[in-house]
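Here is an idea for our session: we take a single protein and study its fold together. Start from the sequence, derive the backbone structure tokens from it, and show both lines together. Once you have written the record down, we can walk along the chain together:
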Amino acid sequence: MSSLTDRYLAATLRAVPAPRREEIATELRGSIEDMIEGRTDAGRDAATAEREVLNELGNPDRLAARYADRRLQLIGPTYYLHWQRLLRLLLTFVPALVGTIVGVAQAATGKDLVPAITSGFGTAFEVAIQVTFWVTLTFAIIERADPSLKLPAWTVDQLPEVPAKQDMTLTDIAASVALLLFTAAFLPWQHFWSWAKIDGERIPLLDPALWRSWLPVLMAVLLAGVVFELVKYRVGRWTWPLVAVKAALDLAFSVPVVWLLADDRLLNPDLVERFAWLQDEGNRQSITLIAIITTVVVLVWDLIDSGVKARRAG
């Protein structure tokens, strides 16, 4: 027997359990010899027959896996769809949520806006990698441990409804998320990097005292709105529960803003004192009235629009 067969046997046996190597070696060598003999009896050259037989047997690692009854996939068909569904769900919102929180938190603590945004994106990327790794590792362990998990069997009841019309696109969702993130980033930006300056000193646009009360609440509502947009895109169409959540988020943001505007507590008093145009009561009331009307109109339009889309989708 030439060295090709010996090399093939050695490559195969090193990947099988030690207690079975002698048994497998005897069986495999006998099979190879029989296959070569069959080809030489048909008039084939012995060296050519041996090469053809070994090529036909294939990769020795794959053959060893069959002998050892070892899976050659990280996650097999039993758990693959469950792994895919869970991973998609987590990647839909976890990296974006964590990255946004980190970016906004760094901006709120005085870090420059560009580094804060970069840090947020970097954190989101790292979180996506970590989520993918740990979910995959968990399912790979389950696959090899092969526990008797009683996973629910698929039934036709799990078929999704066919939406009458796609009322949302990825572009729309991306625009909404960008607007929410921009608004959330504006709140710390106007405090640390306001365009309003007096004698080289930056003046926050909004009352700094609100950081102890309403501004953190408004930022939390905006971040919740980002999660809502991602969930909405995942659902794929407007539903009445989504309309209810959207209405709650809109009211949670609009009502405090309107109340602060009406109570003349939104603008920074130092800003008003240092700009003569804002000191005029009539000018300030005009700005307040326009801001309140705009906020209410946007709120009502948003509620009506989402309700109409939910009714059309239903």
Remarks:
- The chain has a mean pLDDT of 80.
- DSSP finds twelve helices and two strands in the chain.
- The longest strand covers residues 197-198.
- The radius of gyration is 33 Å.
